[in-house]
From TrEMBL:
GO terms for molecular function: hydrolase activity. PANTHER family: GLYCOSYLPHOSPHATIDYLINOSITOL PHOSPHOLIPASE D, PHOSPHATIDYLINOSITOL-GLYCAN-SPECIFIC PHOSPHOLIPASE D. Pfam families: FG-GAP, FG-GAP_3. This is FG-GAP repeat-containing protein. SMART domains: Int_alpha (SM00191). Keywords: Glycoprotein, Hydrolase, Repeat, Signal. The lineage of its organism: Bacteria, Bacillati, Actinomycetota, Actinomycetes, Streptosporangiales. Residues 1-21 form the signal peptide.
Amino acid sequence: MAWPAAVLALTALLTSPAAPAAAAAPAGRDFNGDGYNDLAVGTPAAPGPNGTTGAATILYGGPGGIGGHTVRRPAADCKSDWNVPCRGWGTALAAGDLDGDSAADLVLVGVYPKTQIDSWKSGSVKTTAYPYSGPGAVLGSGLSVGQFDGQPGADVVGVDDSSGFEAGGGTYPASRLTARLNGADWTRNAFHDGWVRVRSMATGDVHGSGRSQMAVIISKYTADGQEEAPYLWLLDDLTRQPASVEDGLWAWGGLCTTANRDVLGCPKKDSRLAMGDVDGDGHLDVVMATPSSRGLQIWYGSAAGFSQFPGFSAHDIGWFDAGAMTGQDLAVGDVNGDGAAEIVLGAPKAASAGRADAGAVVVVPGSKSSPRGPVLSAARIVTQDGMGSADPIGEQSQAGDLFGASVRVLDVTGDGKAEVVVGAPAKNGGAGMLVVLRGSASGVSDAGAQVFHPGQFGLDSPQTAFGGILPL
């Protein structure tokens, strides 16, 4: 998609907030304990010694931005219990304090060919293995660290898609909830009392109780293997079998029509979820973006819980192109420090400067004011070629770069204004690239962006796909 002039005109600077607010970056991202959030990047295809593959690069935050790094690879003699070299290190990542020492641990998924999960802490020369018995599964769709069981100690949860079932002469993928709660053994629980497939998930403490919940876009299968229209569920107890669904936040795409889609929640297979405080009231909101309907819907959190119906709903948004947003990523965080989080959407298939699939990112400001929530008319579009008249990145878009394939919002400078992190995993023929756009009182800053290429970290393979995998 080429961005029309009318849309690019929306990239004017946002109004500055009256007073600064605390940082909205997620907790548990400070790997070296210096008080600044750090950023991890997974590169599972990066070649290593003796047939191993994969690496995780940790970029250290500080007052001036990213400075310093550590690259972790599997040990040269690392082999699975099948005597196969360890491969795919960094297929999925998560971060959180697993041992209660106030410094984050990095959780890494590899496939050896069984799924293997390790954790690493800054200052340690070794990793800690958490054996997982998934048969070749790429565990880690939405891999997350949090407090999910109501007990002291961090938990690790994710989606295991290694299960499958046969129906009508075919074999169909199915999802199960996998969790390591409070340091115990891994468990696999059902999401539902039948076969389902998880399309997207997000986690967070939406009730402010100290216990996290999981929002999922999920499809049920019929007896003959057909997928029903997707549901949006909020799972409030992941320890139950199957996980329990909260009544307050619930939606089914099968009820939706063009006439009622701005009233009902309307999840689709390509919908993506994220959580953040978009209206600045101190409660996490559930954000759903859907390329096929060019739609954005938000369920606002409150002390009383969620309404079943979205508090914000818009479709056929002018800058929201279904083709450009194919493979989109979604993140929410406070970029301008006013207490209301911005919504960041990756558009990796967008055309820029006439180059197909070069990619772009859209940043939609949040607001505490009436009407609360996202300010669609103030959306800013960022490409490698510039942001309005500014050019903070200094790179040039090339066809197939997929800039925006991954996006995160994380305050690495500690100033209360989170940075927008953007991956372009196909840049330079598949080597990849990562961009860190500075946050400011006016939103994404038009200066001070940092650009990282894998060669800076000794990752010289042309197929590294650097920037493609970031922790949630």
